[in-house]
Amino acid sequence: MFTQSNAMPVPSHSIDLDFDRCHLWHPYTSVTNPLPVYPVSRAYDVFLELEDGRRLIDGMSSWWAAIHGYNHSVLNEAIVSQMQRMSHVMFGGLTHDPAVELAKQLVALTPQSLQKVFFSDSGSVSVEVAIKMAIQYWASLGIISKNRLLTVRSGYHGDTFGAMSVCDPVTGMHSLFKGAIQEQFFAEAPACRFDEPCTDSDLADIHVMLERHHMEIAAVIIEPVVQGAGGMRFYAPHYLVKLRELCDSFGVLLIFDEIATGFGRTGRMFALEHAAVAPDILCAGKALTGGYMTLAATLATERVAETICSGNPGVFMHGPTFMANPLACAVASASITLLESYDWKASVLRLETGLLSGLESCREMRSVKDVRVLGAIGVVELHSPVDMALVQKQLVDKGVWVRPFGRLVYLMPPFIMHDEELGILTAAVCDVVKTMC
């Protein structure tokens, strides 16, 4: 079922860490006081092999994307086969089979109302595309006042300017770029936990925002059920049902950001299925290619697409150079086919069970505020922020790769991870968190 190709040779030369330290700028790090980096020589199955020979169990799926693990023979073959035919061709005025086949799969997997697929390079850009679609939709109807977004606090939608503007205004980067990014509307985040009922009071703040500002709001954008990098919060699916009703009532589009939650991570193919709610626009990325290449998609309804194209200038104003790259589309299509070839729901449920039992002991630790699990997502929330450099080293020394942030130590393992490996992973997290008490 999970055929891995792990025979790739280790590079004969060592990675030049001095050059890395002097010239490479890693994400969210300082060049004057850089965090340690760990040189990887190869990756296979659920393992990252370091240059010094240590093997780490990857608990992050490379920022949630490598759901099939690494160096999978099926995905390798998709890349090689497509590369021999065509690695890239512009999508302006041309088309190709990988893009068409992938679009067919996405249309089949998402709500029936989402019929138009726009490919882009990354999750952040897919959010930019969604925002532009929403604003251009209303402009095409002659309502130019509807050019701002409404979202909830504790969200994360990407690091580019439009996406950054709808990230949490406190934990995001608003203060650094004040005046440069558009000011959006923010309502209180859902307070109802995933397994709790959702009442009208949970939507009171966003209701007020819509009531007061709906003539300025083009769309509401939200991460369905799981708020990812903004805090790893899980909320009641019924919130989305009520939010859909509010958006329809006030004439506002609804955008779902499924970049982190799509392709099975929460136990459903897309998190929106927990609520059986369809958005007007949907963003997908990360696990779309199984972690092999950067690719994202923004899906829209016929109504949104046709309205945009009926107004001035009659086309959607976006077009990335590497849009619908054939290599990326081919491996994405293979990744979806691979996911559907086995009982992935059972695999995610098994991971959920293992995460629940494996992280349970953290609940009694003084440093821990909360432990929560949904699908293949396990979160240990602490009272205080972690010392990243120290905690990262402790986890590596225990043979696991976990990348905490803020007050969160969280796991998003590949779906192919076995129980033994998951047990080692959760035990390492519990051991390290215990040292923080």
Description:
This protein has helices spanning 17-23, 61-64, 73-85, 97-109, 123-140, 161-165, 204-213, 238-250, 302-310, 326-340, 344-359, 388-397, 419-434, and strands at residues 40-44, 47-50, 55-58, 114-120, 148-152, 185-187, 217-222, 226-227, 233-234, 253-257, 281-284, 296-301, 368-374, 377-382, 400-401, 408-411. The chain is α/β, with parallel strands linked by helices and 437 residues long. The chain has two domains: 17-71 and 343-434, Alpha-Beta Complex (Aspartate Aminotransferase, domain 1); 76-340, Type I PLP-dependent aspartate aminotransferase-like (Major domain) (Aspartate Aminotransferase, domain 2, 3-Layer(aba) Sandwich), CATH 3.40.640. Helix 3 (73-85) runs antiparallel to helix 10, helix 4 packs across helix 10 (326-340) and helix 11 runs parallel beside helix 13. The chain is globular. The mean pLDDT is 95.
Question: Helix and strand layout, with pairings?
Answer:
Layout: H1 17-23, E1 40-44, E2 47-50, E3 55-58, H2 61-64, H3 73-85, H4 97-109, E4 114-120, H5 123-140, E5 148-152, H6 161-165, E6 185-187, H7 204-213, E7 217-222, E8 226-227, E9 233-234, H8 238-250, E10 253-257, E11 281-284, E12 296-301, H9 302-310, H10 326-340, H11 344-359, E13 368-374, E14 377-382, H12 388-397, E15 400-401, E16 408-411, H13 419-434
Parallel strand pairs: 3-15, 5-6, 5-7, 7-10, 10-11
Antiparallel strand pairs: 1-2, 2-3, 4-12, 8-9, 11-12, 13-14, 14-16
Helix pairs in contact: 3-10, 4-10, 5-9, 11-13
